[in-house]
Amino acid sequence: MSRVLCRYVALALFAIPSVAYAATQHAVYAPPPQYPAEAKARHLTGSGVFALHIRPNGGVEQVETVKSIGYPLLDQAAIAAFREWRFHPSEAAWVLRIPIRYVNGPKRIDSSMLQSPAPGWGMLVTVFSGTKP
What we know:
- The chain has helices at 2-15, 37-41, 72-84, and strands at residues 19-20, 27-29, 46-54, 60-67, 86-87, 94-103, 125-128.
- By secondary structure, the chain is an alpha+beta fold.
- The protein has a single domain, classed as TonB (TolA/TonB C-terminal domain, 2-Layer Sandwich), CATH 3.30.2420.
- β3 (46-54) and β4 form a beta hairpin.
- The radius of gyration is 15 Å and the shape is globular.
- The N and C termini lie far apart (34 Å).
Protein backbone atom coordinates (compact mmCIF):
# COMPACT_ATOMS: atom_id res chain seq x y z
CA MET A 1 0.00 0.00 0.00
CA SER A 2 2.74 2.46 0.93
CA ARG A 3 4.59 1.66 -2.33
CA VAL A 4 1.51 2.63 -4.31
CA LEU A 5 1.12 5.85 -2.34
CA CYS A 6 4.80 6.68 -2.88
CA ARG A 7 4.38 6.15 -6.63
CA TYR A 8 1.41 8.51 -6.75
CA VAL A 9 3.25 11.17 -4.76
CA ALA A 10 6.33 10.82 -6.96
CA LEU A 11 4.19 11.04 -10.09
CA ALA A 12 2.44 14.13 -8.73
CA LEU A 13 5.76 15.83 -7.98
CA PHE A 14 7.04 15.22 -11.51
CA ALA A 15 3.76 16.16 -13.14
CA ILE A 16 3.40 19.46 -11.29
CA PRO A 17 5.28 22.43 -12.72
CA SER A 18 6.31 25.43 -10.60
CA VAL A 19 2.60 25.94 -10.01
CA ALA A 20 0.63 23.11 -8.48
CA TYR A 21 -2.78 23.12 -10.03
CA ALA A 22 -5.40 21.24 -11.95
CA ALA A 23 -7.97 23.28 -13.80
CA THR A 24 -10.87 20.87 -14.17
CA GLN A 25 -11.83 17.99 -16.39
CA HIS A 26 -13.34 20.56 -18.80
CA ALA A 27 -10.23 22.69 -19.30
CA VAL A 28 -8.47 22.57 -22.64
CA TYR A 29 -5.95 25.31 -21.89
CA ALA A 30 -5.16 26.64 -18.41
CA PRO A 31 -1.88 28.56 -18.13
CA PRO A 32 -0.80 28.93 -14.52
CA PRO A 33 -1.02 32.33 -12.85
CA GLN A 34 2.28 34.11 -12.35
CA TYR A 35 3.73 35.16 -9.00
CA PRO A 36 4.61 38.81 -9.76
CA ALA A 37 8.20 39.79 -8.95
CA GLU A 38 7.02 42.69 -6.79
CA ALA A 39 4.78 40.33 -4.79
CA LYS A 40 7.71 37.95 -4.28
CA ALA A 41 9.96 40.81 -3.14
CA ARG A 42 7.31 41.99 -0.67
CA HIS A 43 6.56 38.39 0.46
CA LEU A 44 2.86 38.82 -0.34
CA THR A 45 0.70 35.73 0.20
CA GLY A 46 -2.98 35.00 0.44
CA SER A 47 -5.92 33.06 -0.90
CA GLY A 48 -9.09 33.95 -2.73
CA VAL A 49 -11.89 32.69 -4.96
CA PHE A 50 -12.72 33.72 -8.51
CA ALA A 51 -15.78 32.87 -10.61
CA LEU A 52 -15.08 32.20 -14.28
CA HIS A 53 -18.11 32.94 -16.46
CA ILE A 54 -17.63 30.62 -19.42
CA ARG A 55 -19.28 31.06 -22.82
CA PRO A 56 -20.77 28.07 -24.66
CA ASN A 57 -17.76 28.16 -27.03
CA GLY A 58 -15.42 27.55 -24.05
CA GLY A 59 -13.93 31.05 -23.79
CA VAL A 60 -13.92 32.97 -20.53
CA GLU A 61 -16.31 35.89 -20.82
CA GLN A 62 -15.68 37.39 -17.39
CA VAL A 63 -13.66 36.74 -14.24
CA GLU A 64 -15.45 37.82 -11.09
CA THR A 65 -13.69 38.25 -7.74
CA VAL A 66 -15.75 36.30 -5.21
CA LYS A 67 -13.14 36.66 -2.44
CA SER A 68 -10.08 38.85 -2.93
CA ILE A 69 -6.64 37.41 -2.27
CA GLY A 70 -6.02 40.50 -0.20
CA TYR A 71 -3.60 42.28 -2.51
CA PRO A 72 -4.65 43.90 -5.83
CA LEU A 73 -1.34 42.81 -7.37
CA LEU A 74 -2.09 39.13 -6.73
CA ASP A 75 -5.76 39.50 -7.72
CA GLN A 76 -4.70 41.04 -11.05
CA ALA A 77 -2.18 38.24 -11.73
CA ALA A 78 -4.82 35.58 -11.09
CA ILE A 79 -7.45 37.34 -13.21
CA ALA A 80 -4.99 37.78 -16.10
CA ALA A 81 -4.29 34.04 -16.16
CA PHE A 82 -7.92 32.99 -15.73
CA ARG A 83 -8.96 35.17 -18.70
CA GLU A 84 -6.68 33.04 -20.89
CA TRP A 85 -8.21 29.71 -19.84
CA ARG A 86 -10.20 27.76 -22.43
CA PHE A 87 -12.72 24.99 -21.88
CA HIS A 88 -14.47 22.38 -24.00
CA PRO A 89 -17.57 23.80 -25.68
CA SER A 90 -20.89 23.16 -23.94
CA GLU A 91 -24.58 23.62 -24.69
CA ALA A 92 -24.92 26.70 -22.47
CA ALA A 93 -22.86 29.26 -20.61
CA TRP A 94 -21.77 28.18 -17.14
CA VAL A 95 -19.81 29.36 -14.11
CA LEU A 96 -16.83 27.70 -12.46
CA ARG A 97 -15.47 28.87 -9.10
CA ILE A 98 -11.70 28.57 -8.72
CA PRO A 99 -10.01 28.80 -5.32
CA ILE A 100 -6.43 30.08 -5.50
CA ARG A 101 -3.64 30.69 -3.05
CA TYR A 102 -0.24 32.31 -3.34
CA VAL A 103 2.37 30.70 -1.09
CA ASN A 104 5.76 32.18 -0.23
CA GLY A 105 8.27 29.37 -0.56
CA PRO A 106 9.32 26.42 -2.67
CA LYS A 107 6.75 24.11 -4.23
CA ARG A 108 5.41 21.27 -2.13
CA ILE A 109 2.34 19.07 -2.02
CA ASP A 110 -0.13 19.25 0.85
CA SER A 111 -3.45 17.56 1.53
CA SER A 112 -5.57 20.49 0.31
CA MET A 113 -4.09 20.09 -3.17
CA LEU A 114 -5.27 16.49 -3.38
CA GLN A 115 -8.93 17.06 -2.47
CA SER A 116 -11.60 16.64 -5.13
CA PRO A 117 -13.58 19.81 -5.80
CA ALA A 118 -17.30 20.16 -5.06
CA PRO A 119 -19.70 20.47 -8.01
CA GLY A 120 -19.32 23.88 -9.68
CA TRP A 121 -15.82 24.31 -8.26
CA GLY A 122 -12.43 23.76 -9.85
CA MET A 123 -9.37 22.31 -8.20
CA LEU A 124 -7.34 24.52 -5.89
CA VAL A 125 -4.75 26.53 -7.80
CA THR A 126 -1.57 27.01 -5.77
CA VAL A 127 1.16 29.39 -6.93
CA PHE A 128 4.52 29.16 -5.19
CA SER A 129 7.08 31.96 -5.08
CA GLY A 130 9.93 29.46 -5.33
CA THR A 131 11.90 31.35 -2.69
CA LYS A 132 12.45 30.52 0.94
CA PRO A 133 10.02 32.27 3.33
